Here is the input.
Amino acid sequence: MNDPTTSGAPEAEVDGGVLGPVRVERVAESRLPSVDFAGLPFGSVFADHMLTLTFDDGAWGDPAIVPYGPLSLEPGVMTFHYSQSLFEGLKAYRDRDGAVRLFRPDLNARRMQESCDFLAIPPLPDGGFEAALAAYLSVDADWVPDLPDHALYLRPIVFSVEPHLDVRPSERFLFVVLGSPVGSYFAPDSKGLSLIVEESLARVAPGSGMGAAKASANYTLSLRASRQAREQGYDQVIWLDGAEHRYVEEAGLMNLFAVIDGVIVTPPLNGNILPGITRDSILALLRHWGMGVEERLIEIDELIDGIDSGGISEVFAAGTAAVVSPIGRIAYRGRDHDLPAAPEQGLAEGLRKALTDIQYGRSNDPFGWSTIVVPASGAQA
Ligand code: COI
Here is the structure.
């Protein structure tokens, strides 16, 4: 097999915890000074380095941090044929002291292991995910922006690198961590997101459980519907369950919440829905604040009737990239249903602020969710 990673003489090593020493090959010149952070489109710029770890001969090994760049892969590699690939998404935040923080990376680690299990990919060693992120950030820490609402979005990915055409689980994989500096995912708009209810396509095969995995293929399935939504002037779709097209499941690439008669309701994790880390954190915050929360099925008719009658005061979407985004309009069966303008004192804004205050280390963190991975320069580790 070709070595798919850029190889070169190692310059140094960094500590990779359970992964062992990580060989480091640094870029000759950083691209950081050329990056214009103002209005950076999501995911359009990549940091200098990437971390790679290979699964070969039945074990994960050979951790390396190398310049971000092309991989050399044969066209016979199974990923291209059978989509045995997954990803994770989380952000590294710069706090006011200059330290780099992660938010609940243990949940991303657990979800990745579960996605691996679902896709017949061997899991990383316990603690390997967190160790890989820490090693990667020790090299690309300067790429974590020191700007309001900005972060370094981290994309851990796992995919087959075995050239083989038989339909069976691959025996060779690559795990890569790459970083991309980002600002707000959606341009701030007081009107909120506009979504159209998708009644014919489905995000996942109902009952397959696949919706709970962060499988790349789930995002492939969303592409046609989101293109159609944009063509009709909407930001994204509302996914309904694939069996009956009756129950609300997700808002585009995010989890969905509605405030129905004063109770905050979100669909339950039934295998069709991604167990979002922002979703889980919102539920924990709301319960901590003593607010009424329900994880239950929401019929699309209940959502639309509630918006029309005023019983639903807010609908919002939540995810790592977008944090908490108010929804201003939902189109269903040819009619637009508008929500009241997202109030500044509203729940969505309150949650966004509470979450980002913890993520950026600006407030008390009663749950211990935010951890420093790279201390402010000069500080003690
Ligand atoms: C995230 O919020 O991290 C996601 O995975 C959504 C995305 C594909 C931008």
Residues 1-10 have pLDDT under 50 and may be disordered.
